[in-house]
Fold these 2 entries.
Entry 1:
Amino acid sequence: MALAYYQLKGPVWDYADGWLGPYNECLWMGLQCNNLDSVNSLALDTNNLFGKFPSELAALSGLASLALTRTHLTGTIPTELFSMPKLRELRLYANQMTGSIPTEVAFASRLESLRLETNFFSGTLVTELGLVSTLTDLNIGFNKFRKSIPTEIGQLRKLKFLRVSRNALSGRLPSEIGRMDALEVLAMTDNLMYGSIPSYYGLLWNLRDFRIAGSGVGGFLPTELALMSNLERLDLGNSNFHGTLMTEMGRLTNLFKMSLNDCDFSGPLPSELGYLWNMTRLQMKNNAFTGTIPHEYGRLDELEQFTLEGNKLIGEVPLEVCDLLTEKLEQFVVDCHNRRSGIGFDCEPGCCTLCRDTS
């Protein structure tokens, strides 16, 4: 541990209570030990660490949790870490580390959480990730990973959280992800992918949070999406989705946030969305929706934000929707009526909070 202290510039740490002192290392700040005085946890988060990750930490054979986050670590992940027999949690997020995930990750037989987000990791995602069958949490967002997501990722049947947002991942969404029935969060925003959402994703019954905004994915929404009965958040914005919005979306009654902004959806607004009782934010601006606003939306009395500007809607805002402003609705935005095109609404005082000028 003394070697790691000096390699990581221990004298400039913000907190180093006990380190290199006369007491047992189990009393050093950031260390925890088991009953046999063997170090099983090391956490030095937000502690002004500098330097390359010390591979010597892999000698702590009893270590189950290693967390060195929000600091200034550089260099690559030592391959030796994944041979640590008891390692369950590896958190290295918010550093300046580089390189890729080593193929030796396959040897991490007990690893449950791998958090590498917000670094400078790059390269391709190794297929060996699919061999870490104990993983429940994988976050590699905000890095520079490229090429396609390996289909082997679908072998992670215990995975609950998969976050790969803000990379340069390309290719199609692996249909094999539909096998990951423990998945609760799937975040893939802001990548360079293409194709559509595989219908198999409808089998993700435990999914609560599905975000693929700006991922490059588009096309028609599969009707199987409506089978995600536990879905609470859906973000498809800034994508190439098109076609009419299916009426089956009204079955997703646990949804409280849905963003369809900046897509190419068309046709009428489904009245069935009025069954989404828990909805607090409904964002549908900058599409090509036509027709009128269904009066059934007046049932959404939990609604706080409702944005519809940038569409081709006409008619009058239903009184039932206007009345939501007396409930929890704080932002309701539509297009102002354009007399030339006929598109938009005469925004009555006390109804919409803002109408966007379309003249």
Entry 2:
Amino acid sequence: MGLPALQKLFCRAIWKVHCKNTHWEVKRQRYRCKSCRQTFNDLTNTPLQRTRRPHIWVRFIECMIEGFSLRKCAEQLNDEVTHVTLFYWRHKILSALKQIPTEAFQDIVEMDETYFLYSEKGKRNITERKPRKRGGKAKYRGISHDQVCVLVARDRQKMTYSGVLGRGRIRTTKLDEAIGGHLSDSNVLCTDSWRAFSSYANSKGLAHYRFKSDGKQRVKGVYHIQNVNSYHSRLKKWMDRFNGVATKYLQHYLAWFRYLDSKEYENTASNKKNMLVKSCLFTVTDTNTKLRLSAYFC
């Protein structure tokens, strides 16, 4: 790499250019920022930072696209790394994928919520409730604090937003925080009859079509919520393979599924390369310890 190219490298610590090359360490070129004097390499603050086996990441990406379990991934990689290490690799990649922004929606936007049982899978010494075995079921009937709300919004061009909005019923304030920046006056909302959607549409002056959950009228001309309901169905079916996920990691899995759904689950060379490159475009500073000790908050 020539000097002009080196000078275009950014220091990820303070995001400034004009970094110079310094020395070679463990066969990978390091650079020093002229401003903060910190050294870094081309993998700093990416999922591949400090990795000892960069040669198997592409094969691991392939396993992720296939949706393999961690133990099966380890088998596919000839047990070069353990399934525990792959767990952290997975979440470092997903930490990057969840930062992929959702572009502004166009025309008709279907929006609906779905719910997952609140889970502290993997946590020891749960004190606020009795531990559940094999997933279990909610303590209360219907939508309660035991359920975690996931909002999905999707236009007819398949641009999709999916995010965790908190425990219990969806609230108008959370709705605006999550989706407000992606909508404009030209959008037409299609939702179910839950009052939070009506309140939000009225406050924003958006055209709004409501569909009751009784299923008596599912379509009004070109307006319906069948696309977003189909997305929910695919999401729930895909999530079943994990036998429940900890709620603190739920946003990671939503980002993973959104990426796979946008690529139509095709395990092509282009998609593998795209997923690896995308995951390296965003800053990821999560260490194994930080991921393990992270807590759910919303």
